[in-house]
Amino acid sequence: MSRHHRRNHLRLSRIAAVACVAWVAALFCGPPSAIAVPEDVAGLLDIGGGRAIFLECRGSGSPTVVLMAGKGNGADDWLQVLAPGDPEQDAPGDNLPFGRGDLIHSSEAVLPAIARFTRVCAYDRPDVRMGGSDISTPRAQPHSVDLDVDDLHALLTALGEPAPYVLVAHSYSGLIADLYARMHPETVGALVMVDAVSEQMADVVNPAALANWDASNATTSDQVREGVLLIDAFGRIAAAPGLPAVPAVVLSADKPWRTDLLPESARQGEQVTFADWLVAQDRLAAAIGAGHITETHSGHDIYLYSPALVVEAIRDVVAQVTRVHG
Known about the structure:
One of its GO terms (molecular function) is hydrolase activity. By secondary structure, the chain is of the alpha/beta class.
């Protein structure tokens, strides 16, 4: 799911566009290790091959938490919350994907809250933000999940943040985090799956509904430019090495989807159901040996509805990683 109606397309980097100074010098004028990375940074990072990725990092300490947004969304999502007292907090269904609810930037959002106890970074995949002078280099869409894994590895390598990382993945990013952990197990200290898509969906959903879901997520438009290949991702994960045994938490939505608010064209044929989703969430938690938080009082975007709950889950695994790695 994506939520483009709230995105701030005009947000500018806080890094001044000056030649080879401070953080920009470290990123573009020499190897990433040439200059120590400041505590609070935001801007484009050269990841090689003529490409750059926007990221924002705050705080200090170890392990570094990496926030990974869902399809069509990016770093700015982790700076927002659903306004306190908003009627959508108590609504029985999840209306945020349909433009309802007042989203505000807040010091209680997930990224700034984590920055108060450890290092945290969030980033924009290509084509999730369409305005501003600091957008990640676009790519052909739709694209396969292995490209996102490669980008994340290149990003963390160029940034020079030391492993292990705590990967916090929402929605589609669950597939990126899963495959990344399989391909780079030595760099992953913990996984936090926030209502994440998982390969278990391939076993839960009937083939016709799965094909419709895959086609819907691969489709792009002027408003939603990121397209992803879910069935392809399930196959790549199934063929990859096993996941490392690391601390893990799964958080699942308990507000059902409002399929009645979808346009008529999107309701044609077999569809993935919220019941399917919950079964897959249970199976994901079991497969990765994770604690499973099911009473979230949230829709799909748990980090907007209940940021403190997400932060506490992250704090818990950070403590576990610290005990193991120091």
